[in-house]
């Protein structure tokens, strides 16, 4: 399976160069015929500029799947840390009487 973030369909592409010019990460080069070549796929930030602006619909950007991070603080530690917290009135110096 191709893990490249950008898929180019050169049968649809007319080598206009819009993708090459718009890419903020400069991941494309031109081949000898002027067609885009994904030269630096690891640099692609998947911003979608090339896909959205391609007049020939010749580019598909595959979005990365978000990794779910495990919490760095255990739930029990959060409960223990908040159980001794002052009320908002106490923290502000209010005694609750007006």
Task: Give the tags.
about 100 residues, alpha+beta, Alpha-Beta Plaits, two-stranded antiparallel sheet, rod-shaped
Distance between the termini: 69 Å
Contiguous helical run count? 4
Q: Just give the CATH class of the domain at 6-61.
A: Alpha Beta
Q: Structural class per helix/strand content?
A: alpha+beta
At the third CATH level, what is the topology name of the domain at 6-61?
A: Alpha-Beta Plaits
Strand order within the widest sheet?
1-4
Q: H/E element string? A: EHEEHEHH
Residue stretches low in confidence (pLDDT < 50, at least 5 long) are none
| Strand segment tally | 4
Secondary structure blueprint with pairings:
Layout: E1 6-8, H1 18-22, E2 28-30, E3 36-38, H2 49-53, E4 59-61, H3 75-83, H4 88-92
Antiparallel strand pairs: 1-4, 2-3
Explain what you see.
The protein has helices at 18-22, 49-53, 75-83, 88-92; strands spanning 6-8, 28-30, 36-38, 59-61. It has a domain at 6-61: Alpha-Beta Plaits (2-Layer Sandwich), CATH 3.30.70. The longest helix has 9 residues, at 75-83. The protein has four helices and four strands, in the order βαββαβαα. It is an alpha+beta fold and 98 residues long. 24% of the residues lie in helices and 12% in strands. The strands form two sheets. A two-stranded antiparallel ribbon has the order 1-4. A two-stranded antiparallel sheet has the order 2-3. It starts with 5 loop residues before the first strand and ends in a 6-residue tail after the last helix.
């Amino acid at each position: 399976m191709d893990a490249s973030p950008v898929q180019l369909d050169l049968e649809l592409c007319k080598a206009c160069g819009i993708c090459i010019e718009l890419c903020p990460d400069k991941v494309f080069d031109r081949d000898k015929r002027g067609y885009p070549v994904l030269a630096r796929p690891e640099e692609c930030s998947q911003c979608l500029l090339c896909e959205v602006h391609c007049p020939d619909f010749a580019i598909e950007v595959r979005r990365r799947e978000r990794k779910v991070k495990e919490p760095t603080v255990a739930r029990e530690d959060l409960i223990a840390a908040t159980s001794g917290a002052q009320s908002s009135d106490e923290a502000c110096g209010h005694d609750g009487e007006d």
